[in-house]
Design brief:
Order of helices and strands: EEEHHEHEHEHHEEEEHHHE
Structural class: alpha/beta
Number of strands: 11
CATH architecture of the largest domain: Alpha-Beta Barrel
Number of helices: 9
Largest sheet: 7 strands, parallel
Strand content: 15-25%
Distance between the termini: 8 Å
CATH topology of the largest domain: TIM Barrel
CATH superfamily of the largest domain: Enolase-like C-terminal domain
Radius of gyration: 20 Å
CATH class of the largest domain: Alpha Beta
Number of domains: 2
């Protein structure tokens, strides 16, 4: 087995935010049997830094994140070996529209997104809850979009419960679910549409799955399963989209609007331009495996094994 990596930077469009670092991984599993994958850690959420994952590939002592990358690499290799596109015959689920700063969002933008076909908006909250709630409440009344609020585990159980009880019933009715509502060490006693992502909170009945970090297994106990990605490279986003399409293909009654589209998050590059998103449904790239054939061939690769 031979392994190469190609380092990349993803530059957020938000001013004064540092670029995200990752590598694309190329593996020759056997002669003329090559696969590709993405490796994009989030040290902010407790994952090891990028160098540790690359070192684990070189030593064939994979970190959990590197192991998942190799899983997708092997799947990509299988499709490329048989000269097939991984998305052939699959239906990629629709996506919500992601918003990082709700205070900058205006009602006309919501109207335009509805015209584009979006039905759900996901918003990051919990940094300044009072101001964010004021903005959210006004916007919730201005459209019939459903909202997914992500608190990222920033709030205590008491603070969140007090906030939830103060919301008007008509506003609550516009909330599809709330992701990681409280700190991972706390439990919520009030019932509601709670979703679990990073925090691994057992009271949640909705599971947000990031395929780059976990296999879509042991999900039977959840009422709903929503796929998303970790804002990684477009190749990693394609892997997440394939995982969602594959899971819902096997469990069609569980199909959800997912978090697979991430337009306008990073400065555009050749890969983001190829990974088309006109509206809420991603359009996979042509080629074999997870696609991007011509772009992958043009990259400079550094061999590490």
């Amino acid at each position: 087995m031979k392994i190469w990596v190609h380092p990349y930077q993803l530059r957020p469009r938000v001013p004064h935010v540092q670029p995200r670092m990752g590598v694309l991984v190329k593996v020759e599993w056997a002669m003329h049997q090559v696969g590709y994958s993405d490796l994009h850690p989030w040290p902010e959420f407790g994952e090891q830094p990028l160098d540790a994952h690359i070192d684990s590939l070189a030593k064939v002592e994979f970190t959990p994140l590197a192991e998942m990358s190799m899983e997708f690499n092997y799947i990509d290799r299988e499709f490329r070996l048989h000269k097939r596109n991984a998305f052939l015959g699959m239906i990629v689920p629709r996506s919500h529209r992601l918003v990082f700063d709700i205070e900058t969002l205006q009602a006309p933008q919501l109207t335009q997104w509805q015209k584009d076909g979006f039905t759900h908006i996901k918003v990051k909250m919990g940094r300044d809850l009072k101001r964010e709630t004021e903005a959210f409440t006004q916007l919730a009344y201005s459209s019939n979009l459903l909202w997914r609020l992500d608190m990222n585990g920033r709030l205590s159980e008491k603070d969140f419960t007090d906030w939830w009880k103060k919301l008007d019933d008509s506003v609550r009715a516009r909330i599809d679910f709330i992701e990681d509502p409280v700190n991972k060490d706390e439990q919520l006693k009030v019932p509601g549409p709670w979703a679990d992502d990073w925090s691994k909170q057992k009271f949640a009945k909705i599971r947000v799955v990031k395929p780059a970090r976990e296999a879509a297994e042991e999900l039977i106990s959840y009422d709903r399963v929503v796929f998303t990605h970790g804002l990684e490279h477009s190749f990693g986003q394609a892997c997440a989209a394939w995982s969602a399409a594959n899971y819902y293909g096997q469990h069609p009654k569980k199909t959800e609007v997912c978090g697979l589209a991430a337009p306008d998050i990073y400065e555009p590059d050749d890969f983001t331009r190829a990974w088309s998103c006109e509206g809420p449904r991603m359009k996979p790239t042509p080629g074999f495996g997870f696609g991007f054939d011509e772009l992958l061939e043009k990259l400079k690769w550094e061999r590490i094994l």
